[in-house]
Amino acid sequence: MAHLLGAERLHLEFPTRTVFGEVTLGLDEGSRIGVVGRNGDGKSTLLKLLAGRIEPDSGRVTARRGIRIGMLDQADAVDPELTVAEAVVGGVDEHVWAGDQKVRDILSGLLSDVPWHGRVGDLSGGQRRRVGLAALLVGDWDVLFLDEPTNHLDVEGIAWLAGHLKSRWGKNDGALVVVTHDRWFLDEVSTDTWEVHDGIVEPFEGGYAAYILQRVERDRMAAASDAKRQNLLRKELAWLRRGAPARTSKPKFRIDAANQLIENEPPVRDKVELNRLAVSRLGKDVVDILDASVVYPVAPTADVSPEAPTERTILHDVEWRIAPGERTGILGVNGAGKSTLLGLVTGAVKPTSGKVKRGTTVRIATLSQELDELAEWADERVSAVIAEQKRSYTIGSGSKAVELSPGQLLERLGFSNAQLSTPVKQLSGGQKRRLQLLLILLQEPNVLILDEPTNDLDTDMLAAIEDLLDSWPGTLLVVSHDRYLIERVTDRQLAILDGHVRDLPGGVEQYLELRKAGVAKKADASAVQSRTPAQPSTATALSGAERRAAEKELASVDRRLEKLAGEVSAQHEKLALHDQSDYAGLGVLGDELAALEASIAELELRWLEVSEQLEG
């Protein structure tokens, strides 16, 4: 494979530390690299060095002449004065970008809820981030550097991005280097892993699962003294091999070696023992949500017709009996009602109809996204904060019970002795997140709600927190876009779809399939409604029925274009494999290819016409 980019003996120092000693790396055609490591060890800095955003103190980065390099930096910002269209496609004529299947797919995957002609400065932070990602992806790049691209994407968006990156280039074309804490995404898109630690970059073959195996083997062969870290990685490997069947069908590491390493490793959670403890702490009644609906009034505005609905139903006839020791992940798009459902559990939201019953011994705690629990401690040192808490915390039970001091818990969550004297307000985002979890656990709740708990945490810290939760004997409810975390710490998943709560025996994969089916069903319903004759309109705007019909046709054209694009690729492959001396056969294949391309051109023209109608 051809060489694209190389780094030779890179050395970089910041005023307080050496970031990289002498790092030598290379990227070839077809490279798909996932970058992992502790927060602050230099993952983002490495990407900036390789992309030419910053210069090393010594050493050099060389790129093949003419290659195109694109980068998504966490600090990149889109000009707030631009419209979304200007930011994404610039001055390119509409008939040019609209005729590109790749561009249409990107807009559908990332910006379906973003106003195309809206001002960037009026968007939310998450929407602006997605506009920046879309603007990068529509370009033609030989090498892509992506720094935390899954931030602000939901489960569907992350799955879309993984699919896009996997199909963006041919197998031996292009190169991708991505930094992310999303371990499912790493396993899905990367074929090699770079671990950044202690001033070096250590390469591993394979994605995240293979990387975990090799780290365990490395620690064992080196007789690592850090037994705690080694055992944690063994536990992670055991879950990867036992608890995620989808991964076992495509391992990039030696299965026999993996099985040997985890032969005596117990399951990650003793479910029977945890349930017994949960019942003893909670009793048999936790929270019962019975036929509960939540309806919010819609405030009237000047541009809304008098016939518009005055109420919005968020949840409809929800029945959920939460059991002691239940571990449930909750899935749903933004705005589906996840926070409302959790509000019913905690009592922050009252049902419009139906009722909610709570057990008398229930103590609920929430790990929120806002870090509100730390506000009162902002000027205190970490050691002073934990000194005011209870003196010990017991994890496990029976002969496996271990009593830890708050300091030992902090150490288990990655805090060093030096950090104990740091004021809370000076901690990093990830450190604040871990301290927040510690303070909540020391309150000994028996129902714990985690609301997007993976923010600001690296993969090692996520594994440490998951390990801690494995021995926590209570009811656990998790809302997260992190698919790996959902599958790792919960035993059951629920989805909120159109205001209804649905059980997901098939897990996250079933949720994605239901979402696709729901979109198709809504399109079909729009088609039925559009069959009623529409009255001629003197205005350029479409009537409701006409708009629904146009949207249905646009979706149909998109699907047909995607299918034809696949047929064109297959036809090119047939031409390449056909006997080149068979001129008659080649002519027939060429005619078939021309017919397919003509069909695509016709459909692209229709796509433009319908798009203009919708915009009008």
What does this structure look like?
By secondary structure, this protein is an alpha/beta fold. It has four domains: 3-207, Rossmann fold (3-Layer(aba) Sandwich), CATH 3.40.50; 208-268, no CATH class; 287-510, Rossmann fold (3-Layer(aba) Sandwich); 539-615. 42% of the residues lie in helices and 20% in strands. Strands 5-6-7-3-8-9 form a six-stranded mixed β-sheet, sandwiched between helices. A hairpin with a 2-residue loop joins strand 8 (192-197) and strand 9. The radius of gyration is 27 Å and the shape is globular. The chain starts with a strand and ends with a helix. Residues 248-254 and 526-540 have low confidence and may be disordered.
Top keywords for this entry?
21 helices; coiled coil; Rossmann fold; alpha/beta; ABC transporter ATP-binding protein; 20 strands; 20% strand; 4 domains; 616 residues; six-stranded mixed beta sheet
The value of Rg in angstroms is 27 Å
Give the low-pLDDT segments.
248-254, 526-540
- Kindly, what is the distance between the CA atoms of the first and last residues, rounded to a whole number of angstroms? 49 Å
What's the CATH H-level superfamily name of the largest domain? P-loop containing nucleotide triphosphate hydrolases
Structural class: alpha/beta
Structurally, the number of domains stands at 4
What is the helix fraction of residues, given as a range? 40-55%
* Beta-strand segment tally: 20
Q: Beta-sheet strand percentage?
A: 15-25%
CATH class of the largest domain: Alpha Beta
Provide the spatial order of strands within the biggest beta sheet. Answer: 5-6-7-3-8-9
Pfam family, one: ABC_tran_Xtn
Biased composition (Polar residues): 527-541
Coiled coil: 547-606
Organism: Agromyces protaetiae
